[in-house]
Amino acid sequence: MKTVIIKEYGDFTIPDTYVLDLTQVTVKDCLGCWTCWWKTPGRCVHKDLDEFYTKYVNADKVIIFSKVTRGFVSGNLKTLFDRSIPHYLPYTTYTTGETMHVPRYERYPDVEVYYQGEFASEEGRKVYEDYICRTFYQFYFKGISVKPINDFCLEEVI
Predict the structure, then answer these.
(1) Confidence band of 43 (pLDDT split at 50, 70, 90)
(2) Rounded to an integer, what distance in angstroms lies between the CA atom of residue 133 and that of residue 47?
């Protein structure tokens, strides 16, 4: 199984994985230039995520270790989500009953998100989890799970 890890905390060692360590990398903001759609399809004008993009679209699973920042995803992780737009076409479809970008690839990996941090309320936790689920639903991911870090079990990944 090809696995990609995106981490904002911890020192998780999982054999044969590609790791994007957001404690070491600041993702550049999307410029909204459409280069990734029209001039260099599937490739961003920024070159900071080129290796990640290749690993990401070829993965079977993506595991994200997310910090809860002020009750939400961090700005760096949100920017990474925004920068995922090259994985889709500039056209939209309404086949699911809502407007979504047309997928560029035939399949996308499953995703597991393990979060660390506190929420002001149960409603705040639900908003966070719903946001993650909606984001990856829009990204055409099929298997989506969002859990607190205490639910992470390395043996289930290996």
Answers:
(1) confident
(2) 28
CA distance 2 to 15: 10
Q: Each residue of 79-100: pLDDT tens digit?
A: 999 999 999 999 999 988 999 9
What distance in Å separates the CA atoms of residue 112 and residue 132, rounded to the nearest whole number?
Answer: 10
CA dist 113 → 75, 94, 104 (Å): 16, 27, 23
Which two tokens mark 126? 């639900």
Q: Read out DSSP for 129-142?
A: HHHHHHHHHHTT-S
- Cα–Cα distance between 143 and 103 in angstroms, integer? 16
Residue 121 has pLDDT above 60, yes or no: yes
1 contact partners, CB below 8 Å, separation of at least 6: 60, 61
Q: Could you write out the DSSP letters of every residue in 39-56?
A: TSTT--SS-TTHHHHHHH
Query: What global pTM score does this model have?
Result: 0.91
pLDDT reported for residue 42: 87
Domains and CATH numbers, the chain: 3-157 (3.40.50.360)
Nearest by Cα to 81 from 139, 122, 25: 139
Single-letter code of the amino acid located at 150 = N
SS3 151: helix
